[in-house]
Write a structure and sequence with these properties.
By secondary structure, the chain is mainly alpha-helical. The chain is built from eleven helices and no strands. The protein has one domain.
Amino acid sequence: MTRVQRMLVPVLALVLGAALVAAAHAQAAQGPRRGFIGGMNRGSLLGLLRMEAVQKELKLTEENLAKVTELGGKLREEMQEQFAALREIEDREQRRAKMTELSDGLDRKVREQLREVLSREQIMRLYQIRMQIRAAVESLTNRFVIRRLELTEEQQQKLAEISKEIAAKQSELRGSMRDATAEQRTEVFQKLRQIRTDADEKALGVLTDAQKTAFEEMKGEKVELPTRRPRQ
């Protein structure tokens, strides 16, 4: 096992938690979406495992797939009522705190149960793919990635500012989608993609050349995934 692979095991096993929380916070103001319940959204481990390209990359067997499907169904049923209850919490900070608590619990359950379904190598590769589709600033503000890349206090502050900026812009745009037409929603999705592109460029610009190289190595070999279509 290479030095990078040894580094990946503790980092990638924990980095998912921050991703789930970030996705959850983005949904808190609008109420849970069907795709998010049960950890089945595109950016989750279970969501990725539903994709044929990921299944082929991990060389999943029919038995693997059957167990993953069963796991997703159980978690969806278990968490659906809890996530739906968030709509009853009017205070935004309380709602965000509860969402974080639920997301952390879901993260632990997914990781624990996937260990019984996939091999260590398959799980490590799955985490790599997950990092490939995440916004760079999301990974770079995770404390485990920060430690592995040895980011300075100044770098961390700059990344935190970028993260705050992108969150505010995304929140404003998502709020405009509630009563939007199909055409307007498409425009919003285009703007959201551009915000992410700009944020990724800014975030990577904070790193040194050596840190950029190490960060890309953590993602492993690139996997081509189908483009997500905007909801109509």
